[in-house]
Specification:
Layout (H helix, E strand, L loop, with lengths): L4 H32 L7 H8 L9 H9 L4 H12 L8 E2 H9 L14 H8 L3 E5 L2 E4 L9
């Protein structure tokens, strides 16, 4: 090293140590906040809507999907669409063709985001949110509201 750079090196080390201390404080605060918050990653307003039973199935389909579909994965969005089309009634059946037709009309990023993929049907059944007893006819299972958790 050159003679003139030792003062700069000392200042640089001091700054790095200050930054490390600040990061340690920030991490400690983040850990405290994480322990105090709920265990779910769902937004608080979504939890309140679901727990209060205030899922509005009467609104237009695009508004419904935009409001409740937010950060859901494909299987959850599939279940959400089945819930809308059956109006939340587990005794009603809806055809796969109808679900796919509605889905593919809402591929915008703010709505469902992608074209329909039949893998979503299997994942929704594996999670016990929907079921099919007759080929291509889907209905809700009692645990379907888990999609909001």
């Amino acid at each position: 090293m050159r003679k003139g750079s030792s003062g700069t090196s000392v200042k640089l080390v001091e700054r790095i140590e200050q930054a490390r201390d600040l990061l340690d404080e920030a991490l400690a605060l983040a850990k405290k906040a994480k322990h105090k918050s709920s265990s779910s990653d769902a937004p608080l307003d979504m939890k309140a809507k679901v727990h209060s039973g205030a899922i509005d199935l009467s609104m237009p389909i695009r508004a419904f999907v935009k409001k409740y579909g937010g950060d859901m994965n494909g299987a959850r969005k599939f279940t959400l669409l089945v819930a809308y089309l059956t109006r939340g009634d587990s005794t009603k059946r809806v055809t796969l063709a109808e679900i796919e037709k509605h889905w593919n009309k809402m591929t915008a990023k703010g709505l469902l985001g992608t074209k329909f993929n039949r893998l979503y049907t299997s994942q929704a059944r594996e999670n016990d949110w929907t079921n099919t007893e007759k080929t291509s006819f889907y209905h809700l299972r009692p645990s379907w509201k888990e999609i909001f958790e």
